[in-house]
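Notes from hallway chat w/ T.B., transcribed later so I don't forget. T.B. wanted the structure written out for a chain they're using in a teaching module, and asked if we could keep both sequence and structure tokens in one place. Agreed to drop them here.
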Amino acid sequence: MKIKIFTAMVLLLSLSFSACQKDYLEKSPFNPSSESFYSNQDELLIGLLGCYQQLNYSEQNYGNGNLRVPWQVFIDAATDICWDRTNGDLQNIGKGSIDANNRVALVLYREGYKGIARCNFLLDNVKKLEGTIPAALYNQSIAEARFIRALHYSYLLTFFGGVPLVKTDVAIDQLQIPKSTKQEVADFIISELDAAAVNLPLNQAVLNDGRATKGAALAIKARVALYNERWDVAAQAAKAVMDLGKYTLHNNYGELFKYAGESSREIILALQFAKTINTHTTPQYLLPRLPGGVCDKVPFQSFIDSYECTDGLSIDKSPLYNPQRPYLNRDPRLSFTCGVPGNIIFGYQFETHKDSLQIWNYNVTPAVRIANTEATHAFATFTGYVYKKYTDEIDRNDRQNSELNIILVRYAEVLLTYAEAKIEANQIDQTVYDAINLVRRRATVLMPAITSGKTQAELRSIVRKERKYEFALEGLRLADIRRWKIAGQVLVGPAYGRIPKGLLSNAPVIDANGTPNYSNVTNRADMRVIETKLFNKDRDYLLPFPTIEIQTNKALVQNPGY
């Protein structure tokens, strides 16, 4: 049984309050009266719990059935590396048919401001407790609330650009607030994270896993600064995390996204899940059919082909690439991240060639041949591939109630943020190479080291591809392709799955960003076209403010093109 922040705090508070756990989650601290909160330390902890819980929202929030897949996982399906087969509002973002009534945009905006409101309520009312509770607890609680509020604002800034800055508890009928500029919002986030870091601990107690630390504040500051081209600030914040001496890369890349990796020193902050309180359905919606999944979110052929060979060369340049055996001799992160034909997934041979009507079931001894639903089921993976991140055999018999934590920021991102910021500032030195190579050379990856003497353009290409390989399905890709201004290149034209009854005759051409171009592939006409993407460069670099928000807040001006 996992004991995490949600369960630990509720169990603690149950000693002081008679309500059951369900009451905590449905009532306090989420709609407290300003007349009653905060009157004591326990109520402060309940309020803080509410702030943390609002970081977790999923597809179920916008009415998509039972899909409790955290948005940090599902948002990559709006990019060039993942496809959502539900043909709904998430897919509409990725293929360029979004409008201001898009429910995903509504959830990202609405739930973000719900979280900000909870933090504002705590920050406005916690002053009642000053001098009545230990000063360290008082100051740390304020720091945690400011951190969570800044994190929410960082997401809003990433998706919507400049947004209204609401810094105090405001009644709904008074919410007539114009959006601040992108720079003003970034300034506010960075200043809040600086202030929070002063009173956040270097380490939280084990029972408080998932709560903010000094490292988390600095890491998110580095991310926000990078996203807003503040290269020096990003590099300095990332270096400050590195200098804490607390974090290191996990040797086993694949294990990071399984239960065995939850206590890894690479993880800086993660959403916490426990079956006594909250679970998610991620494994159910990623796994192939035979292990009981529905392969709802699947990688494109272009993502599979973007991974380099083990010699560090792209598949169009490497002598190790064999079109007849395309998944061999590839960056090990490919097989850790994606299920490709020939893999064994939860004891079943994974094969998506439409003539492979039987496969091996290794869950019994001796192994037996069984019907292959991956080849025949109408809703088997449309692309011929699946994702393996955040799937663990421990969830085999309860795939819709996973308590596997979802990573929000980890040390590998800090290292690549440091490298990218230094590259873009043209401050290239050995520390840049060291940071990149730490990621590439972790024990279970061991890709060739990047040697010195590279140009700024070459290093830019390297770090962009590293982020693509390293962070797939971790919610960073949409921000990356937008801030690099390549979304208009990668979200245009046909998006492919595998050839249903064959393989590519030859490798596509891979560009500097790791994006394949199939115009030279002689049998590309046999590839399955999953969808055709469009991208409006004058509109699609930001999400629209939801119609209901424009109608409610008359001072809010819609983003261009919507």
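Follow-up for T.B.: Confidence is low (pLDDT under 50) at residues 10-31. Might be a good example for the class.
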